[in-house]
Design goal:
heterodimer, A: alpha/beta, Rossmann fold, 2 domains, six-stranded mixed sheet, globular, B: mainly alpha, ABC transporter involved in vitamin B12 uptake, BtuC, two-stranded antiparallel ribbon, disordered N terminus
Chain lengths: 499, 335
């Protein structure tokens, strides 16, 4: 019998239909993948399952009983736990406090029993063979990947019958991601259901028993994983055959140097990086995680303190803070790593997000010109194909891919021609990924200079003109056209003697 | 299939060093407050004889207690990420009710005291309910209830006056083991705090202030937390009102406003974050002591009493600067 069965599920946000008559069924003991583009309704679907959002219409059944959790607590009580993509953790609490939040062991005095809390945490880590994680550390001191581990631990601590993993691997380094995939299989083998959402087809292939494809808020099809090809899945996801993911790479770089960096140092991770980025060039940045990539982007944008020299369009520049970095056509713009934290104000509208940092472009003698603003916003929404009901829709209600597009729009409106893209396709679906790559090449052809970091190796191989490989905070190798391959990048990232 | 290039670099020496500095930076606002208290006490002690005696501790604690009680409620609300201006109204109303209803009969006093505390809690709970149900700003809701309560206090007692029994006024002079009752109250308050912050309720309030959306996704009922948080704030404000009548011996329909901003200032000086999620009552107590001792300092310096708000303002600035610098430095290192 099906453990969970859903039919006719509909949810609207303003004028946007997030889910329309969606169907889903899955049984205990399987890993059931949910695939679809951003905005296909997957996130809304799991939010409904986990009690965070209420559907407008639809029938949900859990073990044959009607299932309509009024809040996340009610869902948890029935054994449904979700590991959210945009994290549900508390920054000011310790790792162990987060994992057992509101279910802490207590003493006779009703206070939290610290010893029992530690013991339970270590037992949990032990049971599921977690990668090393200090239970006492405050969450806000953790990296994104570590936070994701805590979120996973929090889900597992509830010992759920249905575990929902929403893009849980996208923030994890390769080793941890592999661990999670193995863990997922183990949990399913225990007779539980894992609903697994991922944009990485390889992962879905590796662990899913069955998969359900969502498109535009509806269910397109369900398949037994072994009975369907990658091409069929992608075609059903995007509603048309995907011609190609990576755009044609025409050399558009000129001789003009847009950004020259010499001996840039910041903190303990970035220890003297030097390189040049030319007009019309897409320059990739690779290397093992934690070897200075994040610090490089943050220092160039002025968000971290750094020493060394930076020349923009031939002029020496001091970038003390992001405001300096933004100014005008000679500026630098960043697409940051942590969308809700750094790039986007979720409780502001799409329009406000787009124009917030460039408000002076719409002012006329100190007065705001609504007309100019509206025109530019419309241009950007059309250009980037942002799927929003109106420009006044709150950014927080958009899908992940559309949020990323808003950040791109925000960046482009600054008119800066040196763009820093930090893992811009993390958690973004195949279709939008293709659009983003094409956009990058188009911008390069128009004279933009782009520095591009990705945690996804094939992207580095197929999109940029050249790739810098960072190791221990320095440029270990620069791989030019024809010399870039996954192997060459890894070799330079790991070995002392770079090829 | 996509392959991620990644490997966790081993925890390095610098990282451990940073963890230690992070610990210190986290507590920087509190440490700065302690330092400021030391400076104020040192100046005061240098100018006045007998500062370092039990008597002086008893007196100063008695003088600071109203503010400490009011600021305790404010601290809970601030940690929740809100603010409570209505405590001004609760304090005024509380003193007015006490001054008009208390009689020599201890039973009457106990009954009316209980009622005043209940009113304080109810007003706060209503604030919390309005904030959650109508999704209104805490600032505006509590500003409105301050005004309403203030008006009611005026209707009950238009000018300062009324009275309380003599034995009630003598409360702060009672001593056990050489320590006056306000000092014991303070000790009790701090014990309460250490207990409260370790309870699920305490942690949930902190968590909700730290990140409301995450707390909601973790199953917290935001409305319930608001009702309890503001209710507690009202309760402590009512306690402050009762204590205040032991000091003034009368009721005042306007006295509450003197505690609204100082209660916020005491908490902020002590390192409580206005953005929620962080803070400790010890810091607030230190902040309240600093603000109270400045009054003494102005007195012994023999300067105009108008210097008191000036000095309070400067100290508030120093405190805010300290916490903002610490936050920036900490953030710079985390990146």
């Amino acid at each position: 019998m099906d453990l969970i069965e859903v039919s006719g599920l509909t949810k609207r946000y303003g004028g946007i239909v997030a889910l329309s008559e969606a169907q889903f069924s899955a049984w205990a003991g399987e890993v059931h993948a949910l695939v679809g583009e951003n905005g296909a309704g997957k996130s809304t679907f799991i939010q409904i399952l986990s009690g965070a959002v209420h559907p407008d219409e639809g029938k949900l059944q859990l073990e044959g009983q009607p299932y309509s959790p009024i809040n996340p607590d009610a869902a948890q009580a029935l054994g449904v736990a979700a590991v959210f993509q945009e994290l549900s953790l508390i920054p000011d609490l310790a790792v162990e406090q987060n994992i057992w939040f509101r279910r802490e062991p207590r003493t006779a005095l009703l206070t939290v029993d610290g010893k029992a809390l530690r013991r339970k945490t270590l037992e949990l880590f032990d049971k599921y063979r977690f990668p090393p994680l200090d239970p006492a550390r405050e969450l806000r001191r953790l990296t994104l990947a570590e936070r994701q581990l805590v979120e996973i631990a929090k889900g597992l601590a509830k010992d759920p019958r249905i575990l929902i993993l929403d893009e849980a691997t996208s923030a994890l380094p390769a080793k941890e991601a592999e661990w999670l995939l193995a863990l997922t299989r183990q949990i399913a083998a225990e007779g539980r259901l894992v609903i697994f959402i991922s944009h990485r087809m390889g992962e879905v292939r590796a662990i899913a028993d069955r998969l359900t494809i969502f498109r535009n808020g509806s269910t397109v099809a369900s398949h037994v994983a072994t009975a369907v090809s990658d091409d069929e899945i992608v075609t059903q996801m995007i509603g048309r055959p995907l011609v190609r993911l990576y755009p044609e790479r025409k050399a558009t770089a000129t001789e003009r140097i847009a950004l020259k960096v010499d001996d840039l140092r910041s903190g303990s991770r970035l220890t003297g990086a030097s390189f040049e980025l030319r007009e019309g060039e897409v320059l990739g940045v690779g290397g093992l995680q934690g070897h200075g990539q994040r610090e490089l982007f943050q220092s160039l944008f002025g968000a971290s303190r750094a020493t060394g020299s930076i020349e923009l369009w031939g002029k020496p520049t001091q970038i003390a803070n992001p405001r300096h970095a933004l100014i005008g056509r000679d500026g630098i713009a960043l697409v940051p790593e942590d969308r809700p934290g750094q790039g986007l104000l979720l409780t502001k509208s799409v329009r406000e997000n787009l124009t917030l940092s460039v408000i002076r472009r719409f002012t006329d003698k100190g007065f705001l010109s609504r007309g100019r603003e509206a025109a530019l916003v419309k241009e950007m929404v059309d250009f980037l194909r942002i799927k929003a009901g109106t420009p006044e829709q709150l950014a927080g209600t958009l899908s992940g891919g559309n949020q990323q597009k808003v950040i791109f729009g925000k960046m482009l409106l600054t008119e800066a021609r040196v763009l820093l893209l930090y893992d811009p396709t993390r958690g973004v679906d195949v279709g939008t990924k293709g659009e983003i790559f094409q956009l990058m090449r188009d911008l390069a052809a128009r004279g933009y200079a782009i520095l591009f970091y990705s945690s996804d190796l094939p992207e580095l191989v197929h999109v940029p003109d050249r790739v810098l490989v960072l190791r221990s905070g320095r440029v270990a190798a620069t791989l030019g056209a024809g010399r870039v391959s996954e192997e060459a990048i890894l070799r330079a990232a790991v070995l002392d003697e770079a090829a | 299939m996509s392959v991620s290039v990644a490997e966790r670099p081993a925890e390095t020496e610098p990282a451990r060093h940073l963890a230690w500095r992070g610990w210190l930076l986290d507590r920087a606002p509190f440490l700065v407050a302690c330092l400021m208290l030391l400076v104020v006490v040192a100046i005061y002690g240098a100018l006045q004889k007998g500062v370092f005696t039990l008597d002086e501790i008893n007196l100063d604690t008695a003088a600071a207690m109203t503010l400490i009680l009011a600021a305790t409620g404010q601290t809970i609300v601030l940690i929740r990420g809100g603010i409570d201006l209505s405590i001004g109204g609760v304090i005024s109303l509380g003193t007015v009710i006490a001054a008009t209803q208390f009689s020599d009969d201890p039973l009457t006093v106990v009954m009316w005291s209980a009622l005043i505390l209940a009113i304080g809690f109810a007003v706060g709970a209503l604030n919390g309910l309005l904030i959650s149900a109508l999704k209104l700003q805490p600032f505006l809701v509590t500003l409105a209830s301050w005004s309403i309560l203030n008006g009611i206090a005026m209707l009950i007692l238009p000018t300062d006056g009324g009275g309380v029994p003599g034995w009630w006024i003598g409360f702060s002079y009672n001593q056990i083991l050489g320590l006056a009752s306000p000092v014991w109250m303070l000790i009790g308050l701090i014990i309460f705090w250490y207990w409260f912050r370790a309870t699920r309720l305490g942690i949930t309030i902190q968590a909700t202030g730290s990140n409301e959306k995450s707390a909601f996704l973790s199953g917290v009922s935001i409305a319930r937390i608001n009702v309890v948080t503001y209710g507690l704030s009202g309760l402590f404000a009512a306690a402050a009102a009762l204590y205040l009548t032991t000091q003034t011996g009368a009721g005042s329909p306007t006295i509450g406003k003197d505690y609204i901003l100082p209660s916020v200032a005491a908490a902020v000086i002590g390192g409580v974050s206005l953005f929620g999620g962080r803070g400790h009552l010890l810091g607030t107590v230190i902040g309240a002591l600093i603000l109270t001792l400045i009054g003494n300092l102005v007195f012994v310096l023999r300067v105009s009493s108008y210097w008191q708000p000036v000095m309070s303002g400067v100290i508030l600035l120093v405190a805010v600067l300290a916490s903002s610098l610490a936050e920036k430095t900490a953030r710079g290192q985390e990146q």
